[in-house]
Design a protein that fits this description.
The structure is a homodimer of 339-residue chains. By secondary structure, chain A is mostly helical. The first copy, chain A, is 72% helix and 1% strand. Chain A has 16 helices and 2 strands.
């Protein structure tokens, strides 16, 4: 078996992208998208309207892609991965709808959020609907193992989101606590999405665990970069807002690093802006300046790369195929993406 | 088999109560309550705090009681009804948490709502957590039929809640549309809760359907009385707020009846207060006056009694036992309760 190409090689390679993964799984993904549209139908017209708004908003479909890819990597040849990938995307969409209400977000992927267009009430309830639909899809599939994995992931996601609320505005949050939050709110679903691909392929535990490890580490890398991009000029160049986490008082790794490395005066600044929520219009620029000065973005990137490498390493178990290479590139993409 | 006592007999009988049901199922209910407390645990302390606030707020536990009662009525002798009753209560609690956010309610059962104490954000997310926990309990139980019944009921509840938002402030809502909303948002879970008791007892379809019919009709009767009590002096005597639905512009049966029977001037009043949301402090008293003048509370009560009778009739299939009599009394309680 060939050694897996490390993400470090990406520096000399063309920019990593999701394209190879999409090319290999494009036909499956079309079927997933078709099923999503079919199953978000309801006689209550507002439900497909609102759900369609977010489902078609140009998400990367990364989580359902993990289910599809894991199944294919395990040599799966049936149809079950399609419905389960749709279930994964429904769970993800439900959490996005609720997150946007909780964060009072007005924009997602450059478009108005559902709560901005229709208000909080239908956004909450359509989230509940999609969550129920996800379970209906799993029940139709009929695997109690899959139901176990995804119901547990859903509970863990909610725990992570609540823990994030609890640690918000608290500059004494530890890095360990921060990592627990992102493992729960983001990486748990990545791990579960990949794991169920192995489950339906009926592969040995070692392969199942390897795919879950790939998903979990990829998810952590993704979230670290997400938290980094919130303070990055790259994000604003792409027409996306910068500083949302700062304004919300969310304690992310760039802030934790800048805080830990900061002078007493700087720590006073962080406490005023994040704990007391006392922010002036210039404070975001100052925050970004401090974060850059202390190398907090580079450090966050380095951590993300370490997790991406762990993700890549987890694939060692599988033969070197175009699909494995596409997943390795997905891990590289996770740390080089600007969106 | 004895004929089932009709709810009409309650007029000459002592006030109907839930006591007989609680007495017969008390030991089971204690186990359900214990399991609820155990399974709402999370390392994230805010979750059991917030969940405990609503779970211990003195709800009637009517839905889990239906699961327990249906199982016992079917002669079930195992333990599965305990966990499934807890799952039903978790689903119900999750919808209450989200409903209170959606309705911006500050009081439930005479106590501050969770959203009032902790804010909307954790109330939404703890709702998601409890919903996931419900599915974890069902997965542990291992019946795909039960998972099917309750995931479908959950989707239908969300549809009903969205449909209620859509029809709010619309005085041209038909009675049929109103009935669809309450069947979905309330009666579907009553029906599912009762049905799963028969499912785990492995009884013939006829018994399963009869119990679902009992639950559904009981649920409709309950919701009709709920909507009636919102305009009733009885509610205010019990220290509960009156007129919440009117203030929210919810179109319930008492309003639909008063509107249909009203003069053109009265219909103008309803349109101003409900459609335009233009309400003065005296408007609620006038609304109650119109509702009483047109006999809309009596009419709503009569409809509720008809559904309670249908619920009772559905029990004909089962032998006349203390438990069946307790369920008949539960149906009578549904229409005579003041809370």
């Amino acid at each position: 078996m060939e050694p897996v190409t490390s993400t470090a090689d990406k520096l000399s390679a063309p920019a990593a992208s999701l394209d190879p993964l999409f090319q290999l799984l494009g036909d499956d993904l079309i079927r997933v998208n078709r099923l999503i549209v079919e199953r978000m139908h309801s006689p209550v017209a507002l439900i497909p309207q609102l759900a369609g708004h977010i489902v078609s908003a140009g998400g990367k479909r990364l989580r359902p892609m993990l289910t599809l890819a894991a199944a294919r990597l395990c040599g799966y040849r049936g149809d079950r991965h399609i419905a389960l990938a749709a279930a994964v995307e429904f769970i993800h969409t439900a959490t996005l709808l609720h997150d946007d209400v909780v964060d009072e977000s007005a924009l997602r992927r450059g478009r108005d959020t559902a709560n901005e267009v229709w208000g909080n009430k239908p956004a909450i309830l359509v989230g509940d609907f999609l969550f129920s639909r996800a379970f209906q899809l799993m029940v139709e599939d009929g695997s109690l193992r899959v139901l176990d994995i995804l119901s547990t992931a859903s509970a863990v996601i909610a725990e992570g989101e609540v823990q994030q609320l609890v640690t918000a505005n608290d500059t004494s949050t530890t890095e360990a606590a921060y990592l627990e939050v992102i493992e729960a709110k983001t990486a748990a679903l990545f791990a579960a999405a990949a794991r169920i691909g192995a489950v339906i392929s009926d592969r040995p535990d070692a392969e199942e665990d390897a795919l879950a490890r790939f998903g979990r580490n990829l998810g952590i890398a993704f979230q670290l970069i997400d938290d980094m991009l919130d303070f990055s000029a790259r994000q604003s160049e792409l027409g996306k807002s910068v500083g949302d986490d700062f304004r919300d008082g969310k304690i992310t790794l760039p802030i934790l690093i800048a805080f830990a490395r900061g002078t007493p005066e700087e720590q006073t600044f962080w406490r005023r802006t994040l704990e007391d929520g006392d922010q002036t219009p210039d404070d975001l620029d100052h925050a970004i300046d401090l974060i850059e000065r202390h190398g907090a973005l580079d450090e966050t990137m380095a951590r993300a790369e370490a997790y991406a490498t762990k993700a890549t390493d987890a694939l060692q178990l599988f033969p070197d195929t175009p699909l494995r290479r596409a997943l390795v590139e997905t891990a590289a993409f996770a740390t080089t993406r600007g969106f």
